[in-house]
Amino acid sequence: MSPAHRSTGEITAVGRAAEILRQFAHSSGVLSASALTQRTGLPKTTVYRMVAELVRVGLLERDGQDYRPGLLLFEIGEPLPQQRDLREASKRHLLTLHEATRQNVGLALLDGFDVVHLEVFRSAEGPRLPQHSGGRWPAHASASGKAILAFMPAEQVVIPHVLQRFTSHTIVEIGALRAELRRVRRRGVAFDRQEALNGIVGIAAPVIGPDEEVLAAVSMSGVVGRIDTARMDAAVRTTAMTISRDLERACSIVRPVLQRR
Question: Which CATH superfamily is domain 81-257 in?
């Protein structure tokens, strides 16, 4: 008997949740509650209650009337199709940037007010940073976070009332942060001026999807005095733009297949 069942044969709450999540492994990655009801054979009220709870804890994300796997699955080590596509489109370009600059290079996306690192390529000549694949960092103290926030619709940018200070350079005033995001949008690139860690600076540029939605950010970081951010920003922006173009081309091929499902 499956461990998801009690000795009576009744499916436990964990078992029901697992059955719902399992359906996404055999789909395009997006399913409605009605489709989940049909696929699992569970009562409609149970499915609606379970998906609401799975969204609440981060195992699913709501997309209009549909649901998709949430970031929590990625953070605990299970690559998701949506993130895997982004990583596959990015990896070659990130490695090229990494090898050309010999600096730490990464790819991150936004979850709430944190950035989640999807890829981190460390350099022997780069700084030892706490960031790692699957790790989080507050967006306001991150070049990647600022690059993503700056290109989001203003009404979607929700800044916490209290911003944590990491160094004397961290922007902790909401008005100052909003002004910085406007500058980032004008420049097309964000800078970390020792805002996360003393002695470390960084650059990041947004990855934009085919529908003009900001998907992620490409970043580079290095030790003050060993990295010329003014010179490197063009390389970071070019890498982010190249990934954006690749995603646009890929989407034009994949989208008709998804529409036929």
Answer: GAF domain (3.30.450.40)
